[in-house]
User: Which sequence fits this backbone?
């Protein structure tokens, strides 16, 4: 296949994934979209949803779909605003999602699963905006907890738990973060279990409990899970391990681990590389190499600014490092960008 054909195929697939669905009435069926292939159509019974799988009843029989393979679900009779909001969330456009959801009167929605979908998307958008652009993070925690209480077996449960953990870290409530991340380890898929341990490790790093965090990261790295996403979770855990090594007097070892990630992996993985370069910057700071640290954080600012939390962290350090080498204009620019773009980030509160 030529590069042009490959690109056309990829763009077409992405458009199919993110484009709005027909309005209600044009196809009164539930649809489950997986990472590959056409959507499966049928009816999801009210008892057909759990944290781990979703049941679909169709003319060809009943099928179960593992939650970790589901990209999105659309429901018969759902309002068009809900579908628009879901599409916006997939595109990480949380302002647009919130705008669409404000048009809905959830109490008028008859089907419970559709009400739960609207409540989840609303809580998620509120949380993501609070952690970046600013807002009431405690209210966002309450909204997500209310969703989990109303729908404890939702197929969004693990994502809701992760969001609650992220909110808690943003609030510097690290023990709460670990508490919220921990239930993700109960998922039946190894990559989720690894993600949970790694996330708890990050919470421990935030609380400066580096030895305990290192144990969590080593548990992830030493796992025998070999699926691609599990392998990626091991790399993400390695970035956390490098920070722990730096904070416990072994920064050179941390640098070696991070350089290995950079040399052997695809920089198109922005979340991984943003974390890697930030961790590298922290290692160099511990080694008293401020210029090397500055270059590491600059990688995140220039190449991976789309990763909001990592970008905020890089800007925080750059605001200090530029000042240390008498580049006051650039230091001011970094601090200003941090305050204006990410007022909800924990890094903006540390200035």
Assistant:
């Amino acid at each position: 296949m030529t590069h042009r054909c490959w690109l056309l195929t990829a763009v077409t697939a992405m458009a199919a994934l993110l484009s709005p669905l027909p309005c209600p009435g044009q196809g009164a069926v539930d649809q489950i979209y997986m990472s590959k292939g056409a959507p499966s159509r049928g009816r999801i019974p009210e008892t057909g949803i759990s944290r781990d799988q979703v049941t679909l009843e169709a003319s060809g029989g009943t099928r179960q779909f593992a939650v970790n393979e589901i990209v999105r679900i659309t429901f018969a009779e759902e309002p068009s605003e809900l579908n628009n909001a879901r599409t916006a969330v997939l595109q990480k456009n949380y302002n647009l999602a919130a705008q669409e959801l404000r048009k809905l009167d959830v109490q008028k929605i008859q089907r419970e699963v559709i009400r739960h979908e609207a409540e989840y998307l609303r809580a998620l958008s509120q949380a993501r905006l609070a952690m970046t652009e600013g807002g009431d993070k405690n209210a966002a925690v309450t909204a997500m907890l209310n969703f989990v209480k109303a729908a404890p077996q939702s197929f969004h449960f693990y994502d809701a738990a992760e969001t609650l953990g992220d909110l808690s870290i943003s609030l510097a409530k690290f023990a709460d973060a670990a508490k919220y991340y921990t239930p993700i380890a109960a998922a039946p898929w190894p990559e989720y279990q690894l993600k949970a341990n790694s996330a708890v490790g990050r919470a421990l790093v935030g609380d400066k409990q580096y030895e305990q965090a290192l144990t969590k990261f080593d548990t992830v790295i030493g796992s025998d899970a070999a699926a691609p996403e599990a392998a990626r979770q091991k790399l993400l855990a390695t970035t956390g391990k490098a920070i722990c090594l730096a904070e416990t007097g072994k920064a050179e070892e941390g640098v070696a681990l991070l350089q290995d990630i950079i040399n052997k992996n695809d920089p198109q993985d922005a979340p991984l590389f943003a974390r890697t370069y930030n961790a590298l910057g922290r290692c160099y700071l511990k080694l008293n190499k401020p210029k090397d640290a500055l270059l590491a954080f600059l990688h995140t600012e220039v190449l991976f600014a789309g990763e909001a939390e990592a970008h905020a962290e890089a800007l925080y350090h750059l605001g200090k490092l530029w000042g240390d080498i008498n580049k006051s204009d650039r230091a001011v620019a970094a601090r200003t960008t941090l305050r204006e773009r990410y007022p909800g980030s924990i890094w903006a509160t540390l200035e």
Notes: The longest strand covers residues 53-58.
